[in-house]
Design a protein that fits this description.
By secondary structure, the chain is α/β, with parallel strands linked by helices. Strand 11, helix 10 and strand 12 form a beta-alpha-beta unit. The protein has 15 helices and 22 strands. Helices cover 36% and strands 23% of the residues. The chain has three domains: 135 residues, Nucleotidyltransferase, domain 5 (2-Layer Sandwich); 176 residues, ATPase, nucleotide binding domain (Nucleotidyltransferase, domain 5); 106 residues, Hypothetical Protein Mth938, Chain: A. Bound molecules: zinc ion. Zinc ion binds next to loops.
């Protein structure tokens, strides 16, 4: 983790904190408006943690992400929190949380009071999809379904650019879509739910039952004879070994997911279905082609253009960035419309520069394509900034080229000045802090050279 020290007050770009509360750990990130995570951290949660303990850990994490209250007070524009369970996002209330002890606990009010900034809260799966919608695989797609098979099967939907929450905040529990009315019993009390067939707990149940009945399986070897928990990675390995039992059970799971997608398509007509979760991270190569085939074969949609089915882009960061997006939505920022902003850049107290979480205390350049390049020694030893150097750093022709200096005002060689004029590049030479401010505020094609 990068330590931020004390950021000077010249930081204009708004920063947000996203928190992902899970059953075993709480993770978080400090991100800018464009969804770039600058600092990240996580803290393990004790088993059966009480609400006050969870509050303590979340507070500690926010403090750690912002390295003390200085950034929080001055620069954190909002905090978003993802919680596993039913959450009333509009009212900021936690209604029911089967896996963590937070139901009825006023986390939003307590965090707001501690950090004096706006705090928003949402269901973690919903936020995972919101993250993908703003910053990941779902950018600029207004109608998306998210399916996340892990231990259970999480679901979420973006309809006309908005998360579908329902009357009580409990909509889109697609894991409990009933796929087989005579199917196995589900943890929710119904029969034949999607997750009772395709969740990892259901896959484990089927494999254990088959092994108990005498079937052979490579999983016995992979899991060292202990089938109490069969991790997604073990399933992946068994599939790679072409284990017959695993293939059979996973085909059944993929089949259920495929037909769930068909039904979801009939209900929502999404342009995109995003798959994430532990099972997909390990076994996407096996599951997604089957799902795509089932969806493509739906005769009802034969004459309609295809619905794309893709894997999550943000993976473990999805909930954190969804929480950041929720915090931004709370402020009325339409992050999806913010132009792809180049790298996050700020000046630290010792005059070193922080770019995307890395500290640079000597020459560095951010080119138009956001690539960060250290300034070669041969250039820094020269008295003047040469045409050769400008050519190197002005690739893809910036409209604005900012030169930031720490000590003496730099001099451009005659050839360098002609080059800028010919290419119609607007060059600005400024001391470090105003130069970085200008870089962060400029929305046109830009590059910066810090010398
Ligand atoms: Zn169920």
């Amino acid at each position: 983790m990068v330590e931020l020290h004390e950021v000077k007050n010249n930081m204009k770009s708004r920063l947000f904190i996203g928190i992902d509360i899970g059953g075993t750990k709480i993770s978080g990130g400090l991100a800018d408006e464009t969804g770039k995570i600058i600092v990240r951290d996580k803290i393990a949660t004790p088993l059966d943690a009480k609400p006050s303990e969870i509050l303590f850990i979340v507070t500690k994490l926010i403090n750690s992400l912002s390295s003390g209250s200085k950034i929080v007070a001055k620069n954190i524009a909002g905090i978003g929190i993802g919680v596993p369970g039913i959450v009333n996002t509009k009212k900021g209330k936690i209604v029911a949380t089967p896996n963590v002890d937070l139901a009825g606990f006023d986390l939003v009010k307590k965090i707001t009071k501690k950090f004096r900034t706006r705090v928003s809260i949402g269901n973690d799966v919903n936020l995972g999809l919101l993250g993908e919608y703003w910053f990941g695989a779902g950018r600029r797609v207004k109608n998306i379904i998210g399916l996340f098979p892990g231990t259970g099967v999480g679901g979420a939907a973006i309809v006309d650019g908005k998360l579908l929450l329902g009357a009580k905040g409990a909509a889109t529990e697609f894991g409990h879509l009933i796929i087989d009315t005579h199917g196995p019993e589900c943890s929710c009390g119904n029969r034949g739910c999607l997750e009772a067939i395709a969740g990892r707990w259901a896959i484990e149940r089927d494999i254990r039952a088959a092994v108990k009945a005498g079937r052979e399986s490579a999983l016995i070897d992979i899991c060292k004879s202990d089938l109490a928990v069969i991790k997604s990675k073990a399933l992946k390995e068994a599939l790679a070994r072409k284990d017959e039992l695993t293939t059979e059970v996973m085909e059944k799971a993929a089949d259920a997911l495929g037909f769930a997608c068909v039904s979801l398509r009939h209900a929502f007509d999404p342009a995109l279905i995003i798959f994430g979760g532990g099972i997909i991270e390990a076994c996407a190569g096996f599951i997604l082609p089957m799902v795509r085939k089932i969806v493509d074969d739906d005769p009802f949609f034969a004459k309609v253009s295809r619905c794309k089915i893709v894997e999550s882009e943000l993976k473990d960061d999805a909930v954190i960035l969804g929480a950041v997006a929720l915090a931004q939505e709370g402020l009325g920022i339409k992050a999806g419309e913010i132009k792809a902003n180049p790298s996050v850049c700020m000046v630290l107290k010792d005059d070193s520069v922080l770019i995307d979480g890395k500290t640079y205390n000597r020459g560095v350049c951010i080119r138009v394509n956001c690539k960060v390049k250290k300034r070669p020694k041969k250039f820094s030893e020269e008295k003047e900034i040469s045409e050769q150097e400008l050519r190197k750093f002005c690739k893809k022709k910036p409209e604005v080229f900012i030169i930031a200096y720490r000590d003496a005002l730099p001099v451009l060689s005659e050839q360098a000045q002609i080059f800028l004029k010919e290419k119609k590049i607007n060059a600005k030479i400024l001391p470090l802090s105003p130069a970085i401010d200008l870089y962060n505020e400029t929305t046109s094609k830009k590059a910066i050279l810090v010398i």
